[in-house]
Each structure stands twice: as C-alpha cells, then as structure tokens.
Amino acid sequence: MISSKDTLTIRHLLCYVFIFGSFFLVFTSGFTWIQTPGAKTYAEIGKSVTLRWNYKLNISQNETHHLSDVGFVKKGNTQTSLALKVKEDEFEYGPNDLSGKYEVHGKQNISLILKDVQESFDRTFCLKTKYKLNGLLQAEKSKCTKLCSFAYPLVDFSPKATLVNVTDLVNLYCNATGKPQPNIIWKKADDPSEVLAPSSSWFNLSVTGPSVQGLYMCIANNSFGTNNKTFFVEVQFKPKIQYISMDQIHPEGARVSLYCNASGNPIPNIAWEATGNTMTSGQGNATLKLANISKADTGEYNCTAKNILGMTSKKTRLTVQYRPVETTLTADPGTDVILGRKLVLNCTSSALPKANQFHFYRNGSFLKNVTDGLLSVDNITSTKSGEYKCIPSNTLGDGDPATVMINVLEPPVLSESLKNRTINESETLELRCKAKGNPLPVVTWTKNSKFLSHNDTYKKENTSRNDAGVYRCTANNSIGEPVYSEATVIVNYAPEVTINKSKQTVNETHSASLDCQASGKPAPRVQWFKENVSIGNESVTLLTNVTWKDAGKYVCKAYNLLGIKSATTELIVQYSPINTKLTTHTGEFKVAVNDTLILNCSAQAFPPANQFTFSSNKTTLQSSPKSTFIIKKPMLFPDEEYTCIPENIMGSGPPSSINISYLEQPSFRQQPETNITVNEAETIKLVCLVRGKPKPNVTWTRDGVYNVIGTGEEFIKNNTNSSDAGQYNCTASNGVGRILSASFSVEVNYKPINTRLSITGRRGITINESLTLNCSAQSNPPPHIFSFQVNGSKANHTPSESTFVIKKDRAFYDESYTCIATNLLGGGEKSDSLIITMLEPPTICTGPKNVTVNETEAITLKCQARGKPPPKITWTKGSSTDILSTNDTYSKARAETCDAGVYRCTASNGVKTPVSAQFSVTIKSFPLAPEILNIAKSIPSVEVHWEQPVTNCSLPITGYIARVKKKESQDEWTECEALHVRNYTWTCSFRDLQSSTTYTLQIIAKNRFGRGNPAEEDFETKDGGSASGSSDARTGGLSKKSYIIIGASVGGFFLLVIIILVGKRLKTKHGESSLQTPIELREPDEVPIDFTIKNEIQYGHDGPMSASQETLEIQEKEDGKPEEDRQDQNVKAEVQNGPDKQMTASKENLIVQETEKKEDGKPEEGREDQNVKSEIRNGPDKQMTASKEDLKVQETEAKEDGKPEEGRQDQNVKSEIRNDPDGQMTASKEDLKVQETEKNEDNDSGEDNLAM
Q1: 708-711: Cβ within 8 A, 24+ apart
Q2: 671-747 has which fold?
Q3: Where are the domains of the chain?
Q4: Which CATH superfamily includes the segment(s) 926-1023?
C-alpha cells in the first residue's frame, strides 16, 4: 500500500517528467529557418527591395501550436516595430518613420517590401516569431539583416566638344554623384590603359600638336560600378601635304589618277591645278582623274592644300606615250579564195617608233608573229577561211588592229546525222541539221515525204500524238550532190482516268465496290487512296463489312512517266448514334437562382439523330426532335443529375449525364454608412455586411486604385493622418452574377503641414523696390491665420492675409523670413527660411583707356566693375558679337596690325540693364618697302615707277619720298614729287643727272607714325646723259669705242682686198706667179656680247625639234640713238587651239626686252628675275617651225672698266611650247622676237656667251 509521502513523491516525479517533457517537445519540435536574408543586404537608392524570411515547424497531429510574427527595426540602440501578425495572413502596422514606405505579406513565408529606398533606410531589420506547443511552453526565434543603401556612379556634368589651337592650354572639369562618393579619373579613348589625371575633377590639357586631338573620357567609379562621359577635343593646325603621286609615265588612252592628301584642321581644301586652271578639288584629299589621256595632257600638275591657318603645295609631272595607229591589212589575190590556192596578207601601220612586230590572228586564234608584216597561207582549205586580224606593236605596246574576211568556196557536207527521238506530248520538238559548204547550203525539212520548212533547225511547239513519224533534212548549195539525213520521232502522252460511280450509299456491315478505268502511253499504273493512304493497286477494289469509319472520299490515281491523273468517288455509310455528349451553353455545370441554363445534347450519327430524350433522377422531362433543354429555378435547390439519349432510323445511341449545382449572387445584409469624418490620430472603422452562395469574398481598396488594403467585412485604420483621407471601396464577389461594391468617403481634419514661403522672381530687391512674400500650407480646414517672422522676430503684419510686402528705402544686410499657418485645429509647421538679399546693379568703377602700342608688343586692357551679385565681364571688338574674354583683364602677348580697333567691356549681373565702356586700340606700325617696277631713262632725266606696298590691316599710306644721290657719296639727296598713275602704281622723274655716273635710288612710304624701310636700287647714266643699270627699259646701240673698232676693222679689210686684186692683175700681165706676200687677214673686232637665252621646248613623245644656226640672230643697233620712255615689256603668250588647227606666233606676238642688272656686287632687295615665258599649245598632228628669223635676240651691252657684277641674275627667256602627240614643233621667225640687252664693254677681251 502506498503512503501519502510516497504519493507526494510520485506527484513530484510526474510534475518533473511533465516539465522536462514540455521542454523536450519545444526543443525537438523541429523549428527550421528555410530562408533568411544575409547579414547585410545591399539596396539601390530609389529602387524597391524585398527581404524574405521562411521557416518550418514540424509537429505531430496530436500537438497544438500557435504562431505570431513581428517585424521590427533597430536604428542605433532604439528598436521600432514595423508590423504584428493578427491573423493568418494579416498584419497590423505600428507607428514609425517608415510609415507608408513598406509592406509585409505572408504566412510562414514572410516578405518585407521596402519602397523607394533612401539613405535614411540604413538600419537593421529583424523578424521575430513566437509559438506555443500544447498550450504549455512558448518559444521564440529571430533573424536580422543590416540594410546598406548604395547608388551607382553618375557623371552629371562633363565638358562639351572643344575646339583648340596648337600651344593652347585647356582646363577641363567633370563632376559625378554616387554612394559611396565616386573617384574621378581622366583617360583618352584610343589609349584607355593610360590614366591622364587620377583622382581629380580638373584636367589641364596642353595642346602640343595634332596628336592631342581625340575622344577623352571622364570616368567615375565606386565599389558598385563605373560611369563615364566622353567628349571630343578638336585641334586646329596648318595643312601639310602627306602624300602626292610621284612623276608618272603612261601610254596614250590610259586612265590616270593623281592622288594628293593632306593633314590639317580645319580639313584643308585640296585643289589640283594645271596651266593656272583648277581641275578638281576636295576636302582632305583630292584625286585628279584623267580618262583617255593624250599627248596634250603632258605637263606639271600642282596640288595645293589650304585652310584658314595657311597654305602649302607640291608638284608632280605626267608624261604621255603613244603607239602605232592607222593599221591596214590587204589580201592577195583577194578576199574570195578558191580551195587549194595561196593567200598572202600584207599588214602596214603608221607608228613612232616604227612597228617591229606584227601579230596575226584567224577568227580570234593566234597564228604567228612576223617582223615584215607579210603572212603567207599555202594550199588554203575551208578551215582557214574567216576573219584575219593583224595587230602591230612597237616598244610602247600594241597598236590599232586591222581585219579582212577571207572566204573559201566548198561543196555541202552534213556535220552530223539526225537521231531518232522520243518526246512527250505538248513538249517542243526541235531537230537540228548542221551543214557545211560555201556558199552556205540550203536545208530542206520533210515529214513522210511532205515538205515542212527551209532552215537549219526544225521546231514544233506543243506537239501532239499526231506529230510522230519519219523526218528528213536535205542540204544543197549547187556545188556537188545534195546530202540528207533521216530520224524517227515517237510521242508519249499522259494518262486519262474515268470512274463509273461518283457517289454510293451503304449500311454499316454491308460491302462496297470501287471501279476505276485508265489509259495512256506508256501504259499507266493504277492505285486507290483514302485520305492519302493507299488501299489497293487494282482497277476494281472491294470493301467488306464497312463501318462508319469507312465513309469518305476515295481517289483513283493513274500515272506514267508523263504525270499523274486522278478521279474521286464518295462512299456514304449509314449508322446509329455514337459518342453521345451532354453540355451546357455556358460550359459550366452550375446556375444561379432565376438564371437560365440551356442543356445541349449531341451525338455522331448518319443520318443525324432526330429524337432526343431528357430525364432527371430517372424522370423523363422531355422527348422530342429538339436537342436542347432549358433549366430555370426561382429559389435554391439541391444539386440534380440530368441525362440525354439520342435516336435515328438506325436505332438509339448511348446515354450521357451531368450534375447541375445552384448558386446565389452577393447582396448586402445591411446598407453601409458611406460618409465618415474623423480628426487626425483617431480611428477609422468601415463596415460592409454581405450574403451569398458560396460565401462572398470581401476586399477593400482606396482611391480607385486596385491595391488591396484589407479583407473581411470590417476595415479599421488606427492613428489616422491627412494621407488617410480619400475614397474607400468595399467589393464583394463569389463568382456568381455581378460584383457587389460600395463607396465610403472619408474626410480627415488635420493641422497645417508643408508650410511654404515663396516669391515670384529673384530672391533679392534693390532700394525702393517692392517684393511680395506668399505663405501657403496644406490643411483641413484651410488655414485662416498667418504670421511672419524676420530674423526670428515677429513682423508687423495683418494675420488674415497670407502675403507680406517688403520694401526698403536704404541699404540692408541679408534677412531671413519664415511663416506659420494656423487653422481650427491649431498652428502648423514653420516654413523653411527664405533669405532676401539686397541687389545692386552693375557699375564700371575702373574703365578702359585708349591705348597705343607698337607692333609685336603686348596689349593689356583692364576693366573693373562692382555690383551684387558680382558682375560678369565680357570683351568684344567692333561690331562683332564674338566674346574675346570673360576676365577683368584682356591681354594679348604679341600685337598685330589687325588688332587695332574699338574694344568694348560689358558688365552684367542680371540686375537691371548691363553697362559697358569702350575705347580705341591703335597699333603703331610703319609701312613696308614699296616694289620698284622699272627705271625708264632718257637724256637727261630718269623716270621711276613703283607699286604701293601691301597694307593689310596697317594704317593707310599718307605719301612717298623718292630720292637719288650719287653712289657712295656724301651729297644731299635729291627728291622728286610722287604722282599717282593708276590703281596701286606711282611714278616720279629726276632731271639734270650727270652722265656716266652711278646713282642710288630710294623709294620710302610714309604713314601717320613716320617712314618705313626704303626700297633701294642702283643705276648708271651713260655718255650724253643716257642711263644704264638694272632697268628693264633700255636704249639700243653700241658705245663710241665699239663703233671706232668696227670702223677700223672694216677699213683694213677693204685695203687688204685691193692689195690682193692688184697682185693678181700683175701676175696675169707678166705671166709670172703671184707674189706671195705674207699678209695677216683679220676679222673686224667683234662687239663683246654677254647674252643668255634659255629656250625650253617641251612636246609629246618622239616629236622632232630642231633649231638651226640661223634660229638666233643677234643684231646691233646704231650708236647714239636713245629710246625714250621705254618700259619693261613682259610678255607671256599662251596660244591653245583644238585638233586640226595650225598655230603660229609671229614676231609681233612676243617681244622680250632687256633686264637691267646691278653693278659692283650690290644685291638687289625685293627684286625678282623677270622671266618671259611663252607657252604655245596646239592640237595633234600640227607643224610648228623655227627659222633664223624666228628669234631675234639683241645684244646685251657689257659693263666697262672691268668691274665685277655681283648679285646679277641672268635674263631668262623661257619659251615652253607644248603640243599633242604626233605633232612636229618648230618656232618660226615671227614666233619669238627677243630684243637685245645692252651691256657695257669690258677693257679686257669680250666673250660671246650664247646658251640655248
């Protein structure tokens, strides 16, 4: 027996067992986290992120449990609740700073959706779940994650495309945003491996040359990604020709392309020029294409590259060659040759150099090469008739070909016999009969001895079986006997099919016969098909014990090599209904109260079913030909089963049954209250009571947006605020009938929020200017009291007005304004501060002054302005709107003449009208030296002509100083008055100069700042007051000393002749030998001449050019006859004419006069050689001759006293004569007349220097 003490011990033991068992159940219940966020979750700012927790609780069926989930956040040491689960899938949200920015969903799979993540979301989010087992013990589990927001880098400001020049320094700026703050580096796109500027928003780019040009990148990166912006830096530089075609030699008729490309920015304009004419142009590169070139295209071609920064050019040369032409080919004894005779062909051509090879071809096939142009063909046969061609060639290539047709007569011959043919009906029959002979034989076609046609080919289209037979072709050309050939033609045709019955009807289980007849050549095969499946290959096919599956169309197909023919018959099978099916018109097996449901009974049968019986729960409801039955119930009924049986003349079919359920659509049990008003922080309770079968599902939405905010017949919202006001909707549906809904209008009264202080325009005023502030706020009811504060103190203002007017009559410091709005519920939030600034229009306190600087010196202009905000300074020049600078100081390191003008500095800060000041900049520069054109001398004066120097942007020239004095003397200068002749040419005359004296001439230009550099030249006057020197207008004749020497020589010559004649007469008279007196015969002293003529004659390949000893004749002029007022005559005669026209240039066409040289080794500054260039161009095959009268070159007088001539330049007369190929070129005596250039005599012996 158990005592009470034992009983107590047993009870304690059972209690301990129960407690430990409960703990065992808790810790062995199998709680498992299936899915949790990581320790850290990264979320992009501005996007949504979902945090998911999922767990599993494994318990037996006898255990009871309860779960409750709560989500909370930790920010620092504080913990705030997000949501608490109150039902299976319903959470109650707690108040926190994330309200309205998240959602919580799920049962054991919990999802926290954070919307529009911001940097303020960075905190720890946790899920805590509690559960009970058997109502005894409670366990708790939790999992947390730390949310880290981030933003990808974004370059929000970068440079735009930049245009720079070489030597510029460009400062580039780039900015980027992101979290963490991005690091900025600079790279060039074509070399991304090189970092130009690490960790810097600024990049200083030094423009050293064109290689700096390219695409640059500003790259921003942080730990989450990279972003970049690109921009293009364009470098301007002078053009440089990178490539030009080399000198080229091409045959006549070729297609030539001359290439030229240049670098530069802006892209230079490339132009090809020849003989002063632009032939083609392009940007960056230009290709000059010459098609079918001729000898006339020989010459130099100039490529010029130009942009706004400069110009450069290069030349190349093209030489054109030509080949044999006018080729002829003759036949001996003629073009018609009798079979077996000899044929000789003779080929000639006109070529330079002479053709040295002749290539012979027969009918396009090569025969042989000969050197004399003769080709012999012995014992000619018919195979050697046809076209013979000769192509001559020389060292330049093949010339023009010549052809001749050779005809050999022969009797007819058939090259091949006819062959038997087999064709298909409707095809084309074509028989060919090839016959040879000369003249060509006539071919005749017959069929079964009946004439058909005359032709090499007999053709019959769309043949039929009647075209079969024997065909013969006969060839005859009246030379020899006719020849013929025969062939037999067989014609095949496609099958033809017939069926006795097109349709037959049988009952199922009976038999059916299918009969098909076919004909054709060759004999066709027959086969039966049903639905493309073969069922037999006999003409007659028998079907036994047919079923409904045998019904359908049967096809009989007959086919041979020519095709397939088919015919169709139909088999109809009668059978009782099968496959009975009972359906509804809606496709569903349910119907609402008072709605109609139509049952439809169908079955497969032939003939179709004509009787339908409907029953319910074994009770017949309807038996008729109708296949439909209508169901309509006024109230709810239990589910029912409906059955249908179809019938036709062959019997009844199988039954079909369905079950029908009855439903009720939703309706209100009590009409809801729809208009509700609450104050903020109170609770909203909305009720929607409904009924229906099945039970309706009730959902709540808001403001017309289908976003479910609650379920069930009640919707409760605690702690309301202004955002909870709006239209709420209750919707009830159960899938039966219409959806039931009701609308609730909820109005929330709240204090003013979002108070805002605003103005129209800028946040600043000037003295005596008014500015109106407007205070606004969001509240219900609207605010009716407004208060304004200035720098924290209450402003004097009428409370009922929402505006405040500011007006200042004196200067003031920046002021801070705020406002507060109040309604019936109390005062609201204070607005943000609005700073009002005093504004001051711009004024220029230190303006520019007129400045004058020397050329090449620096220009510095200063302009200082004040105002609030600080004004912006811009510099312009003249009427141009282009901005030169935006700094207070405008400077240029090296002044140029074109920098002179009126400059303007403008100050603006957006307050009232901008102000400006202007001034004048003068560049102090002096004129360039004029260009002396000629010095015309007469007795006793000298007339000088000069040309105005280039001025560009320089100051205008106000006058000239023309003066002379004896060379290397201390005499005073003698000046003369300058007279304006025309355009930019001036002149003046010096009189009473001493003869045989060297003078120095200076021409000096003046402007407002003074004199420029002089143009200086020396000249010498001769005896009698005539002048000689470096003038281009000279007087002819020899010096007195020259004429004395010539007179003495002529007198001595005549004396010698008299002595010889007297001696001969004495010898004849006395019969003795002549007295041999040693007398020295001397020619008259020759006038020393120093004359150089450069005669360049350029023409096509192999064109002869000859210049005889009479081509150049040097004439002398009489002494003492000056030529007054003569000017340089520089003549360039360019004569160009077309083919087949003759061209000459007479002696009046070109007169090239003397050019005066400097004496005593003094250089001539600013002077250039005067060249006379005569270019004569004519068409092909035209002659041009140069005889002794062609060129008359007058003597050049040598200098006296043996003084050396330094710095003198030869006078070159350049005659370039260009003509087309095959044209001879000469220059007649009238073509070029080059007059002598007089020179002073040298005391030493003179030398003739004549260069051609």
Answers
A1: 710/90, 711/90
A2: Immunoglobulin-like (2.60.40)
A3: 151-231, 417-492, 493-573, 575-663, 671-747, 750-836, 840-923, 926-1023
A4: Immunoglobulins (2.60.40.10)
State yes or no: pLDDT of 1109 exceeds 80: no
Contact by Cβ (8 Å): 499, 480: no
Locate 876 and state its tokens: 């312009």
Residue appearing with tokens 């976003």: 707
Q: How far does CA 1009 lie from the centroid of its chain?
A: 55
The pair of three-digit structure tokens given for residue 1131, joined into one six-digit string: 């003549």
Tokens 């038996």 correspond to 623
- Give the chain's length: 1252
Q: Residue 411 corresponds to which tokens in the numbers above?
A: 């009797």
**Does residue 817 contact residue 790 with C-beta atoms inside 8 Å?**
yes
pLDDT score recorded for residue 1145? 33
Q: Are 932 and 1017 in contact (CB under 8 A)?
A: yes
Binning pLDDT at 50, 70 and 90, where does residue 132 land?
low
- Cα(585)–Cα(600) distance, integer angstroms: 7
CA 383 vs CA 51, 390, 1149: distances in Å:
99, 19, 65
What is the distance between the alpha carbons of residues 214 and 235, in angstroms, rounded to a whole number? 9
| Distance between first and last Cα of the chain | 164
User: For domain 575-663, which CATH number applies: 3.40.190.10, 2.60.40.10, 3.90.930.50, 1.20.1050.40?
Assistant: 2.60.40.10
Give the residue-averaged pLDDT of 510-531: 87
- Can you tell me the distance from the alpha carbon of 568 to that of 556, in angstroms, rounded to the nearest whole number? 6
Residue linked to tokens 């501005």: 46
**417-492 and 493-573 share one fold:** yes
Domain 840-923 - what CATH class? mainly beta
The CATH number of domain 151-231, selected from 1.20.1340.10, 2.60.40.10, 1.10.569.10, 3.30.950.10: 2.60.40.10
Closest C-alpha to 1172, from 1232, 1084, 1225: 1232
Task: Tell me the residue type at 630.
Answer: I
Per-residue pLDDT at 538 exceeds 90: no
pTM for the structure as a whole: 0.32
Task: Determine the 3-state secondary structure of 1057 from DSSP.
Answer: helix
- Tell me which residue of 751, 914, 729 sits closest to 828, measured CA to CA: 751
Provide the pLDDT confidence category of residue 163 given band limits of 50, 70 and 90: confident
User: Domain 750-836, what fold?
Assistant: Immunoglobulin-like (2.60.40)
Residue-wise pLDDT tens digits, 851-907: 888 888 898 888 989 898 899 999 999 888 899 899 988 898 998 888 888 999 999
Least confident of 135-144, 315-324, 372-381, 1192-1201: 1192-1201
Which amino acid, 1162?
K
CA distance 659 to 386: 102
CATH class of 493-573: mainly beta
DSSP state string for 375-413? EEE-S--GGG-EEEEEEEEETTEE---EEEEEEE-EEEE
Convert 645-712 into a string of H (helix), E (strand) and C (coil).
EEEECCEECCCEEEEEEEEEEEEEEECCCCEEEEECCCCEEEECEEEEECCCEEEEEECCEEEEEEEC
Q: Residue 900: beta bridge partners?
A: none
Mean pLDDT of the chain: 77
Provide the token pair at 1065: 């007469």
- pLDDT, residue 871, reads 92
pLDDT in tens, 683-710: 999 999 998 888 899 999 998 888 998 9
d(CA 176, CA 221): 9
Task: Match 């245009």 to its residue by tokens.
Answer: 163
- 3-class secondary structure, 295: helix
* 8 Å CB contact between 1231 and 1192: no
Pick the CATH number of 417-492 from 3.40.190.10, 3.40.50.300, 2.60.40.10, 1.10.580.10: 2.60.40.10
Structural tokens at position 192 = 């991304």
